[in-house]
């Protein structure tokens, strides 16, 4: 790291502040709606979206990496979801310490009920606020930042 901080210019600070405010407001609203519409937490919803999107069964560590959580956070989340019958754990035959997380029929039912409402909220709160050109630009910017992040050392 440089000894002297590279402070943000006013325009850079405005871009960063705007991005953070938008992200916090949007995620906060969507989390509230998921909870109100389905009685699932945003974390439940995210895990079930990723899990069912991958065929309903994933190795625990692969799921953890996919949602970019710490191992302990995912362990607690899966435990809570298992108690409510949304997922189960299956032993991994080739790894005595690892296991699979599997969506249950109740988990599928929960995500199938919540997803249509969630996508409508995403459309109303986010997609409808932007033109197609703005969406295309945001897609390019997001992809560029993700590629840059993945090239950075942890």
TrEMBL record:
Residues in HTH marR-type domain copies: 1-147
Under the heading Gene3D superfamilies, the entry gives: Winged helix-like DNA-binding domain superfamily/Winged helix DNA-binding domain
Task: Please identify the protein, giving its name as recorded.
Answer: Transcriptional regulator, MarR family
Q: Which organism is it from?
A: Streptomyces globisporus
Q: Looking at the Swiss-Prot or TrEMBL record, what is one Pfam family this protein matches?
A: MarR_2
């Amino acid at each position: 790291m440089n000894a002297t901080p590279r402070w943000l210019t006013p325009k850079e600070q405005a871009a960063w502040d705007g991005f953070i405010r938008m992200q916090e407001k949007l995620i906060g609203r969507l989390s509230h709606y998921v909870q109100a519409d389905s009685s699932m937490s945003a974390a439940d919803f995210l895990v079930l979206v990723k899990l069912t999107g991958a065929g309903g069964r994933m190795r625990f560590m692969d799921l953890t990496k996919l949602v970019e959580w710490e191992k302990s956070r995912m362990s607690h989340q899966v435990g809570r979801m298992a108690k409510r019958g949304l997922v189960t754990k299956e032993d991994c035959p080739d790894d005595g310490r690892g296991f699979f997380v599997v969506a249950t029929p109740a988990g599928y039912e929960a995500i199938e009920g919540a997803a249509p409402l969630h996508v409508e909220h995403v459309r109303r709160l986010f997609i409808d606020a932007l033109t197609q050109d703005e969406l295309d630009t945001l897609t390019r910017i997001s992809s560029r930042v993700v590629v840059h992040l993945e090239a950075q050392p942890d």
